[in-house]
Every structure is written in C-alpha cells, then in structure tokens.
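Schema walk-through. Below, the input block comes first and the output block second. Nothing else is stored per chain. Lengths vary across the set, and this one has 221 residues.
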Amino acid sequence: MPSTVVHVGFAILLAAGLLKGAFDRRALAIILVIVVLPEADTLAGPWMDGAHRALLHTLTIPIVAGAWLTWDTRLREPEQSWLRTRWGDWGVRVAWVALFVHLFAHVLLDWAHLEGINLFYPVYDRFFRLEGELVLSSSEGLVQTFVEIHTDPETGDRTADAGSVGTTADTHVANPVELSAEPEPDDPILLPIAESGWQLYLALTGVFVLVARRFQDRRDE
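--- output ---
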C-alpha cells in the first residue's frame, strides 16, 4: 500500500496546483494534517476488525464534508457563510483543497491498492479495490475489466463485480499497529517509505515541487 510519505508527496502536488495564492506555510500545514489523518484508523485495529481502511478510508466522509462546504460556501450568502466570515476567501480555498487532497491523495489512492478500501463504510460494509485495465483493441474495440459482468449458467442472472474484496469481518490490511491478521512474536515492525519505483518517484516529485514553490515565493518577494 502507499506509505504516508507517498500520500504526502501527492498532497503537496495537489496543494501546489490548487491553492494558488493561498499557498503558504499555514495552508500547507493544514493540508498535510488532513492527508495524514486517515491513517489514525489503524489505532482502532486492536478493538475493531478491519478498522484500517474502513473507519477513515471511506467516501462517506468527503461526501458529507463536500455537501456541507457546498451549502456553506456556495448556497449561502457570503455574509452568512460560517467559513467565509471567519477566514475569508483564503479559508474557503484551503477547505476545498483539503477536501480534494483527502479524497484524491489518500482515500482513492488506497482504493487502487491491494485490499482496497471500505468505500461506503459504515453505510455499506464492503471493501472494494480498483483493479483492471482499459484498452483500445484493434479486434475488440474498447475493452475494460474494472467492472466485470458475471452470468449465472443456471438462472441466467447477471451480476456486476467492481472489485469487491470482503468485509471488515474477513479483510485485514497490514499496518504498523497490526502487522498481520495472525501476527507472530518475531514479526518485524516495518514503516514503509516506498514499495515501488513509482511511489518513490511521486514522493520525490512532491518534495521537488515544495522546494520549487519556496524559491518562486522568495523571488516574487
């Protein structure tokens, strides 16, 4: 799974592109806290089966947060907006970027790896993984395997499979708090930084962008 370092690198890229004039140390600190926060669900692992990638790795949080932000910053009058009256346009932009960073730099990035995430927990307890391919074939045309249709040979009923993995009762995602579903006494504690070349590349690109933005800000000053 992508490490916290990879999530942070991706978050910096999104923040640099979306914050525009609101990109400062305070905004960056908020963004980094938001992108790291979902990992806190590992702490609930010893007391709840499948807590990691379920409690805070779910679309229900950004859906609720996005609905509130839309109501407060888009549907209400500017002088009535709770967020805008306290932190102005800076606060509105940072809040929206924080939501996008949480969604794209953490939740959906984990969706594409190994056991995936519990997409709609606690409304619907089911882990899903984004896995498949989308190709343009000279013989078959557009082919995708992300959603597969299965037909029951006896009844002819069709069901769609979008990468369903399991539930919190039977899905375990290894993490530093719970190394495995059945840990051994001599299991090493590993804190991953990058588990593949593309993850290291993404993390280093985020660091590069952060340094580059700093030099740009100094030059503009």
